Amino acid sequence: MSAISHLCGGDLLLENGGLQVISGADETRQRLLRRLLTNPGDYIWQPEYGVGLQSMVGEVVVPAVMQAGIRGQVLKDPGVDSGHSVDVTVSAADNGLCLCHISYVDADTGQQQTLDFSA
């Protein structure tokens, strides 16, 4: 399966006169980022979808709370093998950013994948 390539806050990318599409591990990473940045309740048909990491900006970082929310949402993604553990590390950087490292197993390939980002 493939999907239109789009990162939150970015523009749609064009490739060869059409929209750029992605599949596999890259598609799962983009889907996970959208899920983590979407506020719970923003999708009226799926009110439990999302963590709302953007809404946590400026708040006190409580790693255990963020890790639990992230882990729960990552396990709901069809591209993640829910039979394996999802490791999430959240830490505060010196510059005020929150660093996040997620390690999971790809459901299609069985390969270990990582997703790193800052908020």
Structural account:
This is Tail protein. This protein has 119 residues and is α+β, with helices and mostly antiparallel strands. It has a single domain (2-118), classed as Nuclear Transport Factor 2, Chain: A, CATH 3.10.450. 23% of the residues lie in helices and 26% in strands. The chain is built from 2 helices and 7 strands. The protein has helices at 24-37, 63-75; strands at 2-4, 14-15, 18-19, 21-23, 87-92, 98-105, 112-118. It has a 3-stranded antiparallel beta sheet with strand order 5-6-7, covered by helices on one side. Strands 1-4 form a two-stranded antiparallel ribbon. A hairpin with a 2-residue loop joins β2 (14-15) and β3 (18-19). It starts with a strand and ends with a strand. The model has no long low-confidence stretch (mean pLDDT 85).
